[in-house]
TrEMBL record:
It comes from Luteibacter flocculans. This is SDR family oxidoreductase. PROSITE patterns: ADH_SHORT (PS00061). Keywords: Oxidoreductase. It comes from the Bacteria. The keyword Repeat does not apply. Pfam families: adh_short. Belongs to the short-chain dehydrogenases/reductases (SDR) family.
Length: 267
């Protein structure tokens, strides 16, 4: 059954690829992008594929006018996919950057979600909310703790909404990608080097770079994103499925083992 789907953060990576794929599968897609220069390229891609059912709009979650405009859209599925990443040691990351990461990844998606939920309940409409979480929503790897904290928060919010909205016929899901190669993690790994000052900070720049390089070059750090996109295209419009969706299976198994060890980990 065709759905009307609003995707945030569709200007690149998973969001862009999945927006095109969902439209190719016959859904009416509103693909929103953060900045104006991303609008025309995505429109041109949709046009080249003959996708008249893919509409591209600018939606910067920090822009109140963009957000107000987005709330006028008639949709069945809100996919909160947009996000940013702040990496580096938690004990040294500037608090204003941590606040910004929570603002973009947690508070603004929640605000948009609340607005649509109110509309749907008033309309008595069956609808769905999807959050792009992360494997980092279920554990906190070293030097990725700030980003992981925002995704942990999303997990808690999604679980609360899942229970609260069941009686209103509004479904809630999370998608938890592993470290697929989209460029997002690589870009996030650069973020601390814009503030890390060895005259002020304890962390050494060379040590941090070595740790990031090791993490990103591991088998779990450089996977082909096509697998994840294919699963997203299945999950987002579906009326059934698991609440939490970790991909690939090997990462799901690793996370389950990690969560078990948390109960016996010694300080």
């Amino acid at each position: 059954m065709s759905k009307k789907i609003l995707i945030t953060g569709a200007g690149s990576g998973f969001g862009e690829a999945a927006a095109l794929g969902l439209a190719q599968n016959g859904h009416d897609v509103i693909a929103t992008v953060q900045i104006s220069p991303q609008v025309t390229p995505l429109r041109e891609k949709a046009k080249s594929l003959g996708l008249s059912n893919l509409r591209v709009e600018k939606l910067d979650l920090l822009d109140p006018y963009d957000v107000a405009h987005a709330q006028t859209f008639d949709i069945d599925v809100l996919w909160n996919n947009a996000g940013i990443g702040e990496a580096g040691p938690v004990f040294e990351t500037p608090l204003d950057l941590i606040r910004l990461n929570f603002e973009v990844n947690v508070f603004r998606p929640l605000g948009l979600t609340q607005a649509f939920v109110r509309q749907w309940i008033k309309q008595g409409k069956r609808a769905k909310i999807v959050f792009t979480s992360s494997m980092s929503g279920l554990f906190s790897p070293v030097n990725w703790g700030v980003y992981a904290a925002t995704k942990h928060a999303l997990e808690a919010i999604a679980e609360g909404l899942h229970q609260e909205l069941a009686g209103h016929n509004i479904k809630v899901q999370t998608i938890n990608p592993g470290a697929y190669f989209t460029g997002f993690n690589e870009t996030m790994a650069d973020t601390p080097f814009r503030w890390l000052d060895e005259e002020k900070n304890i962390t050494r720049r060379a040590d941090l770079r070595e740790q990031f390089d090791a993490a990103l070059s591991s088998p779990f750090g450089h996977m082909d994103a096509k697998e994840m996109v294919a699963r997203m295209i299945e999950i987002v419009p579906s009326d059934t499925g698991h609440f939490r969706n970790v991909v690939p299976a090997a990462v799901e198994e690793m996370l389950q083992a990690e969560q078990l060890t948390a109960w016996i980990r010694q300080i």
